[in-house]
Amino acid sequence: MRLKLSTFLLLLSVCAPPTSAQKINKLEVAAQVKAEFLHAWSGYKKYAWGHDDLRPLTKTYHDWYAQPLLMTPVDALDTMILMGFKDEAAVTKGYIVKNLSFDKDISVQNFEITIRLLGGLLSSYQLTGDKRLLNLAEDLGNRLLPVFESPTGLPYRYVNLKTGKVRGEITNPAEAGTLLIEFGTLSKLTHRPVFYDKAKRALVEIYKRRSAIGLVGTWINVETGKWTDTDSHISGAIDSYYEYLLKCWLLFGDEDCHRMWLDSIAAINKYLADEVPPRHATGPVSWRELWYGHADMNTGKRTATTFGALDAFFPAVLALSGDVDRARWLQDSSDDMWMEHDIEPEEINYRTFEVVSAGYPLRPEIIESNYYLSHYAAKKQARLLRSRRRKGRNIAAEMEGARAFVYLTRGQIMFEGLVAFCRTDESYAALKSVITKEKSDSMQSFLFAETFKYFYLLFAPPTTLNFDKVIFNTEAHPIRRTW
Ligand code: DMJ
Fold first, then answer.
1. Pocket flag, ligand 1, residue 446 (CB < 6 Å)
2. What is the DSSP string of 376-445?
3. Do the beta carbons of residue 457 and residue 371 sit within 8 Å?
4. 423 C-alpha to center of ligand 1: Å?
């Protein structure tokens, strides 16, 4: 049987603890991440300043709507602050407060605007104390509120920022249930409960419509409250609904969210988790790989054995919930998915390892999970070292140190892959195919908000951000409980 890369790295580092030559120079890699962030950012500034995104191949810009909403600058600002780019951050913040206005006659997608702009403004407000950012967030929050005026309280997908006209009655759990960190934080900071109440109700309304076996589907009608697609999974369109159940309990101490999370994770682990024999096994082996596939929400019957870049957020959520063992088990599978093509496909069939969807739009989730797992391993190692009374080798602490080293090593390999395949002469570009490595003319703002941020935090000194004192929204904007 071929040894899995993860197992090999772990064995290697435990049997032979990293020598100074093998050790990763974290500060050096963190500096490289910063340099690559600036490289990508310079391209945006040169060709797309004042617009939403850069089109990196044609060197022009892309706006999501008829008028720009500064997606990239708002999404990127807190990463710049964390990386210590003081001047760049000051210029960007100055531009945002001077030029960003939501008084626009455009119909916007509530979910994307909430996680990128509302989340970005709130996080940067907390990091800088600049009240103008909070004012912008409150103005945006007010303009988004009409989405909740449906017969069920589930939000419409689109709202006109000027007129409040809504549309899009078919939504999904992720779009309906990934609003409470941002709206709830806005409530706490403005002392206006309306934002918390509306977003919480939306989350509860999805949960209330779970099936008898505790699963939710993919698409739902906000006017009738009926599911229009009963496929259940942890992938795009459902993913961050689960993430917010857990995180809203942790951020706000909301016990309803805690209960909903506990119910949900039990059903997810029962019906969606899939333990499969390792694909390289040549004979019978007892060891299994862990994946999460698709199942019908009513019957629990398996409908697909696909897993992808979006599902790769789940180890981070499992680890945050306290289930670090399961998180590590799943992360081994995710990381293998990346290593197979030296960069991550959007979706594979985990039974055959065939690529089902070949693009790589610069997604962050897998790096996010490596960051969480490296944090928890280092934390456990420190605890084990502190609690040690006997003399001699502390094997348990060494094991955790070795694990942290594995996640750092994989993170470094992934960073090298990102640079090797996605860097362009003046910025970064998504890939059309991880097989051919052909680039596409797109650079989404989450490259700055999430991908570079998680790479940086993985290697930066832990003092850069106190992991245990923040909750990241689904766009990686850290929120502190200041209330
Ligand atoms: C981001 O906008 C968010 O992380 C969202 O939850 C999922 N998709 C992208 C990144 O892949």
1. yes
2. HHHHHHHHHHHH--SSS--HHHHHHHHHHHHHHHHHHHHHHHHHHHHB-SSSB--BS-TTT--B-S-B-T
3. yes
4. 20
pLDDT in tens, 280-290: 888 888 899 99
pTM for this model (two decimals)? 0.95
Render pLDDT for 343-400 as a digit per residue (tens, 0 to 9).
Answer: 999 999 999 999 999 999 999 999 999 999 999 999 999 999 998 767 788 999 999 9
| Token couple for 95 | 């531009």
First to last CA, the chain: 54
Q: State the Cα–Cα distance between residues 182 and 178, nearest whole angstrom.
A: 8
Cα–Cα distance for residue pair 452/297, rounded to 1 Å: 35
Helix (H) or strand (E) segment spanning residue 78: helix 71-82
**Whole-number mean pLDDT of the chain?**
95
474 CB near ligand 1 (under 6 Å): yes
- 53 is known as an active-site residue: no
Run of H or E including 311: none
Establish whether 416 is a catalytic residue.
no
CA of 361 relative to ligand 1 center, distance in Å:
10
Q: How far apart are CA 57 and CA 51, in angstroms?
A: 16
Inter-residue long-range contacts of 261-264, CB under 8 Å, 24+ positions, other chains counted: 261/321, 263/207, 263/210, 263/214, 264/207, 264/210, 264/214
E strand map for 284-375:
289-292, 294-296, 302-304, 306-308, 347-349, 354-357
Please report, as a single letter, which amino acid is at residue 420. A
Nearest CA to ligand 1 atom 6: 474
Query: Which secondary-structure segment (H or E) carries 338?
Result: helix 324-341
Q: What distance in angstroms lies between residue 124's CA and the mean position of ligand 1's atoms?
A: 19
**pLDDT for position 475:** 99
Question: Which residue in the list 75, 344, 347, 365 is annotated as catalytic?
Answer: 365
Nearest CA to ligand 1 atom 2: 475
- Residue 232 in contact with ligand 1 by CB distance below 6 A: no
Q: DSSP readout, 314-330?
A: HHHHHHHTT-HHHHHHH
